[in-house]
Fold:
Amino acid sequence: MAYQQRAAATLADPRWAAVVARDSAADGQFVYSVASTGVYCRPGCSARLASPENVRFHTTPADAEQAGFRPCRRCQPDRQSLAAQQAATIAALCRFIEAAERTPTLAELAARSGVSSYHLHRLFKAQTGLTPRAYAAAQRARRVRYELQHGVSVTDAIYRAGYNSSGRFYEESRQLLGMTPSAYRTGGSNHRIRFAIGDCSLGSILVAQSEHGICAILLGDDPESLAHVLQDRFPAAELSGDDAAFAQRVASVVGLLERPGLGLDLPLDIRGTAFQQRVWQALQEIPAGRTASYTEIAQRMGSPKAVRAVAGACAANLLAVAIPCHRVVRQDGSLAGYRWGVDRKRLLLEREAILPETAASAASPQLDAEQAGA
Structure:
């Protein structure tokens, strides 16, 4: 009878499902011991499945060893898991790229990590969501923005960030900064942003437009706080909030909130990191009336381990509804956090769910977006 009770306890434990599935994602969360063999294993061990009545769960390898069990020779649970080793390797390479005065080649990174260039390329992208080259480019962009924001001359900022020539930088500056380097250095001075604040069925709305297109669609309950968000985004830009001619653009955006599945036929000025832009592009490909999970978005991008980074990119989106982060939900379909409030997210999804078939199945709007790093 005692063995039946032990088996029932094991079967009722949620960790048993991970053992049955040999789920390597659970490695490091716990280990399990097998009384009939005297060993303990990782959840992802490929050894033959033990009988439930012989299984006990332990929080750490030390706990299992204290209970008298020895580590399995096959899965080596007393050592760092392969996934943890890979994560540590990529983290070390990221720090190396960030500190390097020039962009390391893929071959150099592979030699440093002890794996082939092909394997490293795949592993790096799976862990970070970017290729090594794209990650290095993002770090150069981050450095040059930091230098410019701290008063360094444009020329010094270019070379300190690791650009080999000023010509190369100026070719990319529009994508990196969204404005001229000198304007970015002064916080966007001489850079005009037209904006208007109004009311809609979702509360207060702020719509802003640069010379390149709509650069912000903000929702909230407090109009003043929305204005502060815009000011923080463009601290030294010329913000113009008294423009009657801009009212028609605002009306178009309000129409988008009422019928979010119909799209916005206006150019967008999209500013974000390389990874954020990839996420936002993936969001624009989700049809109205449908949803996708953060995990699914990461998988579509070829970066299945970048789920948290995907969630971060959604949270950084300043173009509500135009970039439809409201269509991203948890793995179980429940509504996760939303920058503009979960209630607004629910309402937007409800509105899309009752759109006519022709609207709901329409392709995502063609956006004449200015791809800019910020």
In short: The chain is about 45% helix and 15% strand. Residues 123 and 303 are 9 Å apart (CA to CA). Confidence is low (pLDDT under 50) at residues 357-374. The two ends are 66 Å apart (CA to CA).
